[in-house]
Amino acid sequence: MSRTNAEAPSNFPHWVALGSLAFVLWLFFSNLVPALRDRDQLEAVERELVGLRRNYDAAIQEARLGLGPNAHYDLQALLVAIDQQGYTPFELCLAYPQHEPERQPADEPAAPVPTPPESTEAR
Fold first, then answer.
1. Within a domain: residue 10?
2. Are 84 and 122 in contact (CB under 8 A)?
3. Using CA atoms, how far apart are residues 39 and 106, in angstroms rounded to an integer?
4. Which of 1, 15, 72, 73 fits a 20 to 30 Å CA distance from 32?
5. For 60-86, what is each residue's pLDDT tens digit?
6. Domain that holds residue 51
């Protein structure tokens, strides 16, 4: 079937195409802008973490070599003293917290605090 001369040509397909194009462009840019912002934030966090990692690695290296402001601390002797008391460093931190622990909600059970093991004289 062909169109007869009596029918006027319709602009409907052109308006549908333009409307669809406008909608697709709006979807694209409405998702692109937040994604770019999130990417920039993630890159900033990555740079911060890399800087912290470098600082920690340098501090660990200084501690191993006995350099820096804490050169008078002997980390190996500290670990030996903790072991002589029958603790691991984690257990020691749990048994003797530096500050008052944060209050937990009533529906969460408190984490158990390990009791010190019996002293072993013959090690």
1. no
2. no
3. 39
4. 15
5. 888 777 777 777 777 788 889 999 999
6. 15-67
Tell me which residue of 73, 46, 45, 47 sits closest to 59, measured CA to CA: 73
Residues 78 and 66 sit within 8 Å (Cβ to Cβ): no
The domain tally of the chain equals: 2
Q: Are 87 and 116 in contact (CB under 8 A)?
A: yes
The mean pLDDT of 2-24, rounded to a whole number, is 84
What is the C-alpha to C-alpha distance for residues 89 and 95, in angstroms, rounded to an integer? Answer: 10
Pick from 72, 71, 96, 68: which is nearest to 82 by CA? 96
Dihedral sign for Cα 77, 80, 84, 88, please: positive
Query: 123 and 86 in contact (C-beta within 8 Å)?
Result: no
